[in-house]
């Protein structure tokens, strides 16, 4: 599905006590696998003293997002999280790029997929330079690399120099192979003077839902 208008893109940071993570995983799978209005959803965690979870979701437009929000399953999910989540922050993103493989996904926690979430601070005045390089690299990666399933990038609303990117790989080996490609090395070279800060989060995906063949670029 090629999107002509900017879709809705949200990122949630959730902190969960270790003893509650299995319960959270069960609830998030049930919620995401039945989210009929979503284009893409992914929930994954970093293994630390307190489990840091990241949930990213995308909808075709505001109407689809509102339809989703009005469903009873959203209300039930929010109710279920009250006694599980110790901290929650929602980050609204402006979508800069979305591309996923044609295959549809409904992946549960028992999987070998690898997800990398990257936070990038871009220097003032270098936004267009960085955007052109990263979108070209992501598009090429999804088209040419079998091991990549999705590439998503967005900027924080009203903070265009603060970027997030989400990359979904079939395996860790697919990620390592990606790092050796010409297009990735070219991206690093093209952005070495525009990136001010970078934070990389390796996530173990608990659930991935993808309607397949989604493409958006402003």
Automatic annotation (TrEMBL):
Mind telling me what this protein is named? Antibiotic biosynthesis monooxygenase
Upper lineage is: Bacteria, Bacillati, Bacillota, Bacilli, Lactobacillales
Ranges for the ABM domain? Answer: 114-209
One family from Pfam that matches here is ABM
Which InterPro entries has this protein been placed in? ABM_dom, AI-2_Isomerase_LsrG, Dimeric_a/b-barrel
Q: Which organism is it from?
A: Lactobacillus gallinarum
Q: Where would one find the signal peptide in this protein?
A: none
Any idea which UniProt keywords this protein has? Monooxygenase, Oxidoreductase
Q: Which SUPFAM superfamilies match?
A: Dimeric alpha+beta barrel
What molecular function terms (GO) are annotated for this protein? monooxygenase activity
Instruction: State whether keyword rRNA-binding applies.
Output: no
């Amino acid at each position: 599905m090629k999107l002509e208008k900017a879709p809705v893109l949200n990122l949630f940071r959730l902190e969960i006590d270790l003893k509650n993570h299995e319960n959270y995983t069960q609830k998030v799978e049930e919620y995401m696998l039945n989210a009929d209005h979503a284009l893409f959803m992914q929930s994954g965690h970093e293994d630390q003293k307190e489990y840091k979870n990241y949930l990213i979701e995308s909808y075709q437009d505001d109407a689809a997002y509102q339809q989703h929000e009005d469903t009873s399953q959203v209300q039930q999910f929010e109710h279920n999280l009250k006694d599980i989540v110790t901290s929650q922050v929602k980050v609204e993103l402006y979508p800069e790029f979305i591309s996923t493989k044609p295959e549809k996904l409904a992946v549960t926690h028992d999987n070998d997929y690898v997800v990398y979430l990257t936070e990038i601070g871009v220097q003032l005045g270098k936004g267009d330079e960085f955007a052109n390089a990263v979108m070209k690299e992501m598009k090429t990666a999804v088209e040419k690399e079998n091991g990549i399933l999705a590439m998503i990038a967005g900027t924080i609303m009203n903070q265009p120099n603060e970027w997030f990117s989400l990359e979904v790989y079939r395996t860790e080996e697919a990620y390592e192979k990606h790092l050796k490609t010409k297009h990735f090395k070219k991206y690093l070279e093209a952005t070495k003077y525009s990136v001010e800060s970078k934070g990389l989060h390796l996530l173990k995906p608990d659930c991935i839902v993808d309607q397949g063949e989604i493409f958006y670029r402003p």
